[in-house]
Amino acid sequence: MAPKRNAKGEPKGAAENGESKNGVAAQNGGNDLPERNILITAAEGQTGRLVLELLLTDETYASKFTSLTALVFSEDAKSTLDDFMQTEDIAGLKEILVFDPEDEETLVEAMKNIDTCLLIPPARKDKAKITRTLLEASKKAKTVRNLVFLSSVGCDYAERDKQPRLREFIDLEALAMQPKGLTETELTGHSPCVVRAGFYAENLLLYTKQAQGEGKLPIPIGKDHKFSPIPLGDVAQLCAHILTSYGQHGLGEDVRGQVIIATGSAMYAGEELAEAASQALGTKMEFASISEAEAKKILASDQGEEVDEAEKEYLLEYYSLVREGKTNYTANIAFEHIFGTKGQEIVDFFKVYSAEFKPKKRRITKSGGSKAKKHAQD
């Protein structure tokens, strides 16, 4: 489900007319910033789409780059992204490239027009192979000075035999940082930044059926296990800031060379999440501690039909980290340093998605029984 707010917490569509101002100031001489040509990979995904939307419609970022290109992984994904841009009335995207693993030459040529890349590993089983291909293409292009790699919180605590989907982010981070020390890649990777994004709060939308029907949040963690969900909009805002930051050697000095860990504003146990939801929705919501087997059943049902199998594995692995006590921390100093806030509070997240989580009222029939209203799934 696409996020309902932009990274500022505003309703989607709040930007003026949804029109891009990208490159206008630079092209007209009203901006002294160097030229910046950005590529966002996995742009059909929720993270990529939201970063695209933010860059093209938010005045904070839209005047700070010259061009914006999206890379997707199929023709269907290109059509979906095109439809999204038209539906949301968003203009200014230079091009949508379709990744072809058999055509490295075209990929390298496309990369030669790019100096800044947000590399988002796709949520699919071959994400490591694709990420390596993209990094190799950027090395051969020798132009992608600013390389921002989106990784995952918890990858450093994950064990290779127990949480392989999480742990592989460590390997990919190493590949992303490698060009910094290679002279033969010239500009590529000279100005890197790794963002380890926390568990997306939007993943809780997988349990809206239980929330609406039973007033429960079924999560495969114990009563006392804690983690710190971060709203997707906060991650998008952080990425947009990094991509449009400027320093002597590429990215801004406050982010260049950094490994930025970004979790939500606070840690929550399951009951605390339910309490926050109750406060936001104005109705009682309870936490239900379920087994991993039950969590797998939910993901295998129609509730998880839009989630890639690799992403399902990632989610289950992250919950296992929570149960192991390896997520008992928050990391929002960088976010607060940049934006002056720790990010969207979880109560406000539930308010934004209140229609999805709030239990449906039951109609009382003449016989005194009750009948649940049918809910149209998004």
Automatic annotation (TrEMBL):
This is NAD(P)-binding protein. Pfam families: NmrA. Gene3D superfamilies: NAD(P)-binding Rossmann-like Domain. Residues 36-316 form the NmrA-like domain. Residues 1-30 are annotated as: Disordered. InterPro entries: Ergot_Alk_Oxidoreductase (IPR051604), NAD(P)-bd_dom_sf (IPR036291), NmrA-like (IPR008030). It comes from Exidia glandulosa HHB12029.
